Structures are given as structure tokens and as C-alpha cells.
Amino acid sequence: MCRCTSALVFPSSREVSPSVNGHAKKQPVNIFLQSSKEELRPEDPAAAQTLEAASSGAQKLVLLVATTGAPLSDAVSKLPPLQQPPYAPWQLPVIGHALLTRGKNEHFVHNLAHNIWGDGGLARNGGTVRVSLPTDLDFETGAPEGPEGWDDKAALVETIMTCDPDVIAELIAREAEFPKCWNRGPQNVVARMAGNGLFTSGTRDPDWQTAHGILPRAFNALKIRSYYPAILDKCRVYMHAWDKRAAGGEALIGGIHEWMSAFTADAIVKCIIGLDMHNIERLQTGEEAHLFMRTYRRANRVNMRPDLKAELGAAKYYNPLVDKKAEHMRLVAEARRNTEEVIFDLVERTRRGEMGEGGMIHMMLHDKSATNGEYIRYRNFYPQLINVMVAGHETTSATLSWTLYFLAKNPTCMEKALAEIRDVLGDAAEPTVDHIAKLHYVEACFREALRIQPVAVATARDAAADTVLQGKWLVRRGQRVAVNLVALHRREDQWGGPFGDPLEYNPDRFMPGAYEKAGLPPRHPQAYAPWGFGVRACIGQLFALWEAKTFLAMLLPRFHFRTPVGYVAVASQRELSISPLPYQLSLHVRRREGAPATSLPSDEAQPPAAARTAQGGQKQANGATTAPAAAPAAAGHSTPLQVLFGSNSGMCEDFAQQLAAKVRGAGFTVTVGSLDLAIAGGGGSGGLPTTGAVAVLTSTYNGMPPDNAVAFSKWLGAAAPGSQAGVRYAVFGVGNSQWAATFQAFPKRVDGLLTAAGAAALLPLSSVDVDQAGVTDAFDEWSDSLVAAALSAFGVASPTGAAAAAAAAPRPRVDIRPFDESNGGEIAFELTGPGDLDVLTKMRGHIPTNGNTNSFLHPLKVLESRQLLPADSGRATAHVELELPEGMTYSAGDHLEVVPVNCPSLVEAALQLLGLRGDEPFLWTAGSKDGAARGIGSGLKPPPALGDLMPGLKIKVHARGALQWFVDLSTVPSRKLVAQLAEACPCPPEAAALRRLASEEGYSAGVSGPKLTLVELLSRFRSVPTSLPELVNALPRLAPRYYSISSSPRADPRRCSITVGLVAFTTPTGRPHRGASSGLIHSQPVGRHLLGTVRCLQSTFKLPKDPTTPIIMIGPGTGLAPMCGFMQERAALLQGGAQLGPALLFFGCRSAGEDYIYRDTLEGHLAAGVISGLHVAFSRDGPSKVYVQVGCEASAQNWMGSLLEAGRYLEDVWAG
Fold first, then answer.
1. For residue 862, is it within any domain?
2. PROSITE patterns, alphabetically (predicted)?
3. Which partner for 1048 in 26, 502, 804, 1128 could form a disulfide, CB atoms 3.0-4.6 Å apart?
């Protein structure tokens, strides 16, 4: 029986071990090459060498394996051997396909596209062909990046050329097998001048790998928004220059490419380097271009298309003894040296702090790469900056030239773009940041020009080993797969149909929903690749779109333009551009009637390139981020807005801080505090402020107010009608629908009582269910609505500018930064772990407890820990008894607060992601917002944050401890966070994938559904720069857990017990999950400690003071725990001679033999008279499922009847 492997095979022996009925059995095999059907015999030296190469990984082969040791079967023998793609037409001896490069186009890639795939060629030749070109035209052998000694030099000459989007998709999926190499003839020519920069180097180049982890940060969406003032300023300069040219009426402006080049060069250099070259102004006045531009252009011209006769002089040029090639190389070296001098002068000026703070050069000087932890080498600065000029300004200027040409030739498209600009901008004379995203047709105009005339006409990948492409074509090691973007962008099946001839300009192709409206399936996602694809996609494509849209939004409302009569553009590089341009494009330009005025260029329009990350910090060597400077106050209307929270676990407090940042950015003066603190002044006799507004964010606990809202609840309940007239408020409730009976009870109470007291709601009551996905998204929508409603209610507007943006930026919840002696100051103590008793002693010395032992966390020694369920039940429930410290008290029905820690596997995964060992020291400075990130101090009533108790206290903590304690690593990141990661992602393909995950459908399927953690997500998108402080502040705090105490102090006041079910499951991603708290509790052996305290939460869940009062107790599963405490208390009372009233216990579980916990104890209580009835329901025993509520219904009528007869039901019955 023979099979053909679909994967690559690496044979290391002549035996395989297939599994037969679960047992491994070795069988001999015969191995054949799929490409030739030749058997490889170990005794044959050549075959043995081939097998050894495959075994070591030096060479990959596609093999057939005969697992019986027999020859190939007839069926397999008749299969056609693997073939390379078919040759393109017109192949001739010696010159191969050289004729295909000739035609009506100047650029040979355009001619290849037309001659192979034009005029029905796609149907005749297919989307992928093989071409053989002379080496002096296309390729040079001896590639420096590939493995030494190519086994088939023909592979270097014969290129696989494609315009098939499916092939591109496969190249993306197999990027490691098809790396981009920069090693062929034309590439080496470019590299002579440009060096090995981010665009002009191979993926395996260490310099590329280093730069790819740094430079994309300069082009993420947040950075580009910060560049907008500089981009707009350069547009203003351009408009003023053309105003002068067209001052006397219609003017013929020549050299459009020169104008576009001046604009794009000025814009990108100003934004990312901090240098204003003023090339537009120089062009307007006829001055020379800036020195940087002059040296760059000369180096490009001398390298690519030198006029040696002019350079050398006629005498030297015609001298047969002069080596013209050597002279050419001398000129290239001289031109490059001059350009290097200019660039390294810019580097030195940046290093001295004279310019470019936080810009691209600053990044190269100071930042380590996120990919390999290395700095960019100093000698690699020149290639990276030259690459910005090659790929960052020439490509955009070329596309803008083509866009103006196509709009001039298609006046209907120009008018549609102008109409959209006027509609979006309204009365505004200039576009704002928010306008740019709404200019869909303008963007379509630019994209369509880039489709028809891609500035990078081709891109390629090389096969790292012999392999198969599209499941049918053999690709040899070192062979190039070149994507002809000209042909790809003109495929009839992707771009034709109702949109017309693919060669015709029609921006409607790129309008949202265009294909769906035309009744067509969506376009292939890889049918458009002008910026490259995969990890090598252009990092500046988003910058180019913003730059182009801003330019067109300024130009079109001000000027009408047309081409000279009879002008037809020809794609050419004769104007010394890297990209094909519309050759010698000129435009007749006139100013439109009623055109908006253009603001004067602002000398102060400095791009805030110094913004380091989304949080504004600066990368350090250990991957951390320093804290940003304090945000400046936004100049605004200063309307007061009080943000109040009621919170036990801290979620509402987190939301309150987020809301405060948002409304602060809208110009409000914000104060934040708990609900109880809001009425603390004046002994609670006052009221809420009548100036400004009040936002209330609160949860509920068993229908009761949170601990820090109890006094507020009492005050509000006693408020007289009309006493809160003039107060304007909004309430946001946080609850869990699993507690259906009390879901949102307290938020509803607050909203109702405020209205009854005369307050006016800015918004209707809004709430969120934490048991459902989208919690943070719902909060974001509500907070946005609140800001809009408050602005409208008070008739004010949000401020604008950098100060407003800085004020609105979220402030870190936890102030943590790398520790060193200079920033450490006086360290109060070192936090090493949750069981560090000495640390806890030191910490308590800094916090006043006012004699209340319960007010602080304590190490609680484990006295007993036993499993209550059988080992084969598949579940685990532990009974744990703990020793309480002297002075800590509790009563039956109270809760034990336990501080959890993240499970070790999550912590290790986070450390690996961050590139940390775990022992790196960090400095945690206690502040008012971070203390609740731990449960430390949260047992106080109301529970203040640790930072409130110890403001400014400096604590040394190690990386592992911070990840164990400060953040909930198991949390699924919100859609908003995923979207923010996409904005900050420097790698365009990864950013696009993150944006898909941030969509509603993508988030449900790819994040919330599989319960993906942030660490798992970032591990898949490694280009997103992440530090420990950023990770800690991106996720919610690791909240304390509360467990009902299952004992009574009447039995032993120094001993309490809890009953804890282990939360353990495997997520859809395959990650084993253990609850942070339950996992910790189950793993602590006797003698070790848990960190916790007794919490007396606001509840009426207590035994009646009169022990004769009849009670009903219902406790399914581990809900039995507090009932055990009540029964232990009744047992102690009974033992002391007290008379007990009747008590019924209803308990439900799955099976008597599986999870009937505390069975002996319960039956003992029944026998002793502690309870008068025990009703147990088993949902899995018997022919039908029986639940605890069924037992309640069956017993209720008889028992209630007896209570009614005794006249006690209405006054005494108590249910818990």
C-alpha cells in the first residue's frame, strides 16, 4: 500500500513505526522521489547523500513512501511526476523569454504583464508561469543570502511569475519557507546606494530583524494621528504656493512630480525626523532643494542612470584606457559618501538633543528591538533613513501624481470627490483628524490610481528549500516566485464585470460594500497588494493614506486642474524616480470660485513624534516602560463632574477612573470617590452638588449596597422629596445575571431614589451583565453617551489640541517601573510573595488599623485540607480549615476574603512573552488608584485603596511577583483593547489581523469564544511592543475572592473553615485553566498560609437572634457552606442548653455516591436535633432528574400549614 505524503518528509532511517491497534510495529519502507519516481537506495552513494541531506534538514524533499517495502503500486507509478509551472509563451533559445519584456510600455514588468496575461492571456496561460530571462536583465547568480552552492543554478534564472491571488495567500501562510531575499541583479544595484534598510534587505538579514522590531512604531495609527498637524501644515504651504502660481488666472504648472516629491519629502521628514526642509517653498521661489534632497537625488541618479559622458567629460569618456565601470563605481561611492555625511549630521544633531526628540533617529539611538532585543547598529542608520526616502516619499509622490492625472482625465470622479469633501467638512475650511476617516471616496481615488499604476511593480519571495506550491508545482531551492502586481491589479475576474474595463479608472471599485451592491462575491483579499504582503508589507502605508487624503481634501476644494490637450501619460522612470511616473506631467490649474481660505502655515506645527508608545512611556533595556510626564491640564469649560463608585471587587472603581479620564479630556473638572465619601462632609446631612453633574457607577451585593456605599444608601433612602432638586445625574449598574433575584437591585434603587428626591437624569439607567461578553464595550458606549449628554446639557464644547488629548489619556492604574538605585529612593520594604510573613508585618506598620484586626490582611495558616469528593468524580471540592490571628473575629454567615495569585503557567507564559526571567526588580509606588489592584487593605469599611492608606509608599517587587499579584492574567481582553493593539501594531499584516479580531464577528469567534487571554493574543502577534507596566495596566486587577465561612466561632473562635470547589477546565485554545483563588487554595498544604481576612459584607444573611425562630435553609452544591456554619452554631447552642426552633435543610447535588458532601455531618445534625428535616435531591440518580426546588415544593405545603396553624409564619419565618 503506497501513499504520497502531502507534507515534506525527512527520512532518517529505512524503517517507520505505524501504530497498529495502539501498538507500534516497525516496517521496512522503500522511498522514492516524487519528482522523478526514482527509488533512493541507501547502498547508492548519491542516494545516501541525498537522504542524509534531507535527514539533517539541509535539503527538503518531497517523497513517496511505500510502507510495505514493496515497489510503487501501478496507480502511484502512473501519477504524473511533480512539474514546474508551464513556461510562458514566446520562449526562444539563448534569450529565453526576453522578447516578453519588450512592448509599448517603458517598464519591462508592464510589458511582461501585457504579453503574458493581457488580451485573454490569463485564460490561455493560467495565473502562474515560468519565465527564463537573461541574467544581465533580471538575475545574478552567487546569491549572498541563500545557502551556499545552489544545487540547480537554473533555478536562479528561471523565475516563477504569478498574478494569482491564491499563490500570494500561500506565500503569506508559508512565510518561513518563502522568505524575501534581496540578492538579485536589480536589487543589488539599488542596495549599492540604499544599503540594507527595512525595504532593501532580506528577511533573514539580522539588521532587518532588528529594525523591524523598532521602526514600525513610528507609523502606527496613534503616531500618525499625532503627525497630523505637521501633515496639514505642509498642505497649507503647498496651497499657498499654487495660489501664487494661479494668482493671475489659469496657469500651466509643469513638473508635477517635482511638486509632489517636494510635498511628500517635506511631510515625512518633518514628521519622523523633526527636520523641516522647506522644499515646497524652495521650489516655488526657484531655489535649490534642501541639501538632504540634493545629495539623495544625486546618489540615486548616479547609481541608477548615470550620464557618464557628462560626469567624466568627453575626453575621459572616450578614452579606451579608462575603465568606465570602475569610474561608475567611484562616482556611486562618492555620491553615497556625501549623502552619508548629511545623514550622520542629522543623527548627531538628534543625539545632542537639537532636533527630533522621540522621532525615528531618536528611536534608533535609544530603543531596543522588540524582535531580538538588539539596538540598530550605527552603520545601519544610513540605510534605514535612505529607505524612508525610497519607500516613504517617492512611492507616495508617484501615486499622488497618478491620482491627479486620473482625476484630471475623469472630471466626473473629480466632482464626486469634491462633493464628498464638501459634505464631510461642511463649513470647515480645512479637514480635521476626524474628517479624514470619513473621506471614503477620496481614499478610493488614491487606491484606484495605485491599482492601475502600482509604484512597486513586482515583489518576490524565494524558496528556502525544494517544495511544492499550490499542491502541484515543484519549486526548487533558491527559485524565485515573483508576483507581477501590474497583472494582479488588472485581472478581469477581480476588477472587471460591472465596474468596467480593469484598465479604466473607476474608484467605485474601492467603495465600502461595492461588490455586495453589485451582486458579486467579495474580491479576493490578496487581489490588491500595492504595499507588498505578509511580514514584509510596507510599514508606512497608513501614513501614505492619511497624507494623500489630507492633501486631496485641501487641494480639490481650492483648485480645478486639467491636463494639456492630447497628453496621455506613459509610466516611466526617466525622471529618475524609483517608481514609474506619468512622464512629464503638467497641469492647467485655476483657483475655484468661492474656494475656502487657507490658514497660514504654522511655525509651531511640530509633530508630536516624541510620543513613545500608546501610553507615552519610553522603552528600557529590560522591556519596561518609564512613566510618562504628568498630562497637562486641558484648557476647557471646567464644568464640575463628580464620579462616584460603589464597589466591592473593584470593577466599578476601575470604570470610574476610566470615565474620569474621558470626561477630563472633554473639559470637565473631575473628582472621583466612593459613594460614601460623597456624603461624608457635614456628617452626611448635606446633598449632592447642584452645579455640574454626578455620575454613579455601582454594583450590588445580594441586593444590598457595596460596602463603600452603605452610608450613601441610608442617606439617600432618608432623603426628602425635592431635597436633591437641581442635581443632574446618570447611573451605570454592574451586576451578574446569575443572581437573577437581586440583579441590578442597588443601581435601580439609587436611580429611583434620586428621581424621587427631585434629581434629573442626564441618561436613563444603564447596566451591564458581567456574565455576558462585551462588558467593557458596553461601558465605553455608555461613557461616550454620558459625555455627549453632559456637553449638551451644559451648552459647552470639548476642548481641542494636544493638552486635551493628553488630559483624556488614561492614567496608569498601577505606578510600576524598573527599579534602580536612582529611582528607588527610600524603599519601605520588598514584596517577595503572598506568604512573606515579614513583609506583612512591615506593611501593617504603615497602615493604621484603629485596633480592628479584621481591617488588614493576615497570613492564615492552613490547619486542615481534605477533599470531599471521590478521586474518580472528575471534580474537586476541598474543606479547608484556617487559623485566625489573635483579635480577628467573625460570626456565622460572614465571608473569608482570600487574595488569589495567578497560576504558575499563566505567569510563566507572561514572563516568556515579556522576555523576563522573573527576578528583575521593579518599583511600585503606592497611589490612590492602584491599591485595589490587590486585595490589600480592602477589608476596611469602606475599603480604601492601599494607595490611600500608604500614599507614596515605595515597595520593591520582582517581575514574577507583580505578574502573580497585580493583574488578572486569565481575563479575556475586551474588543476595545484588541482594537487598541491593532492601532499600536507596527506590522501591517498583524495589524490587519488584529483589526479583524476587533470586529464584532471576529471578536466573538477569535477572542471571547475561545477565551483567549491577552498573553495568548500577544504571543500570536509578537510585533506589538509590550512591557510589564503596560501589561499590568492593560488588564483588570486580580480581585479578591470571597468564600462563605462554613463554621461558627461558637465551636472555636480561632478557627474557621471554607468549602471551595476547584475551577478547572481546558479552554478552546487548549490552555489548561485553574482558578486563581480556588487553584491556590487546593494546592496549599497543611502548615502553609493563605493571605486573607474576615469580611462582614453588607447582608441580612444571618441566623435570627431568637434561636426558636423557624428557618429554611437551601444550599445546592458548595452553597451548603454557610448552612454548615449555621448548623454548627445551632449545635453549639443546643449543647449549651438552648431551645431551638424547627429548621429544614434542602440540599441538592448530582449523585449520592459522587458529591453528597458532608453527608455524615448532616445526618448527624439531623439525628441530634440540630435540624428537624433534611431533604436531599439528586439530579443524576434515578430515571429522572430531581432538583432541590422540587423537594422544597413537596415539603412546603405541610410545613407552612403547621406554621400557619401555630400563628408563626407571618411574623417569624426566615429563609436564607
1. no
2. CYTOCHROME_P450, FAD_FR, FLAVODOXIN_LIKE
3. 1128
- Exposed, middle or buried, 1211 (CB in 10 Å: 0-12/13-18/19+)? exposed
Residue at 667 is within a domain: yes
1033: left (phi over 0), alpha (psi -120 to 50) or beta: alpha
- Whether 635 shows a pLDDT value over 60: the answer reads no
Average pLDDT score over the chain:
80
Does 474 lie in the same domain as 553? Answer: no
Distance between CA 910 and CA 918 in Å, rounded?
A: 10
- Using DSSP's 3-state secondary structure scheme, residue 541 falls into helix
Q: Domain containing 729 — which CATH number?
A: 3.40.50.360
Q: Report cis status (omega within 30 of 0) of the bond before 942.
A: yes
On whether both 480 and 417 belong to a single domain, the answer is no
Asked whether residue 4 is assigned to any structural domain, the reply reads no
CA distance 848 to 838: 17
Confidence at residue 537, expressed as pLDDT on a 0 to 100 scale: 85
The pLDDT of residue 390: 82
| C-alpha cell of residue 742 | 437581586
Convert the pLDDT of each residue in 662-699 to its tens digit.
898 888 999 888 898 888 653 334 579 999 999 999 98
Distance from C-alpha of 1149 to C-alpha of 1156, rounded to nearest angstrom: 6
Report helix, strand or coil for 953.
Answer: coil
User: What is the DSSP annotation of 401-422?
Assistant: HHHHHHHHH-HHHHHHHHHHHH
Is residue 346 domain-shared with residue 442, that is, in the same domain?
Answer: yes
Q: In the predicted model, what is the mean pLDDT of residues 738-753?
A: 85
- What are φ and ψ of residue 96, in 5° steps? 60, -125
* Residue 380 pLDDT greater than 80, yes or no: yes
The residue count for the chain? 1216
pLDDT at 651: 74
Which comes out higher in pLDDT, residue 1017 or 1009? 1017
Question: Contact at 8 Å (CB) between 949 and 931?
Answer: yes
The dihedral through the CA atoms of 1182, 1187, 1188, 1193 has a sign that is: negative
Instruction: Provide the CATH number for the domain around residue 1138.
Output: 3.40.50.80
Residue 143 confidence (pLDDT): 34
pLDDT over 80 (residue 767): yes
- Mean pLDDT over 469-490 rounds to 92
Distance of alpha carbon 1120 from alpha carbon 1045, whole angstroms: 10
- In terms of phi and psi (left: phi > 0; alpha: psi -120 to 50; beta: otherwise), the region of 639 is beta
Report the CATH number at residue 543: 1.10.630.10
Determine the structural domain holding residue 734 and report its residue range.
642-772
Average pLDDT over residues 266-285: 92
Helices (runs of H) and strands (runs of E) counted in the chain = 46, 40
Residue listed under C-alpha cell 519588450:
102
Whether residue 474 is found in the same domain as residue 431: no
240 with 373, same domain?
A: yes
Residue 88 CA: distances (Å) to CA of 135, 156, 174, 841: 17, 17, 25, 81
Q: Specify whether 431 is located in the same domain as 542.
A: yes
pLDDT in tens, 1137-1166: 999 999 988 887 777 777 788 889 999 999
CA–CA gap between residue 1216 and residue 1111 (Å, rounded): 8
Rounded mean pLDDT of 361-388?
87
What is the DSSP annotation of 1087-1143? Answer: T-EEEEEEE--S---S--SSTTS-EEEE--GGGGHHHHHHHHHHHHHHHTT-----E
Q: How many domains does the chain have?
A: 4
Residues 6+ apart with CB under 8 A from 76: 2, 4, 64
In a domain, 1123, yes or no: yes
pLDDT range class, residue 966, cuts 50, 70, 90: confident
End-to-end Cα distance, the chain: 70
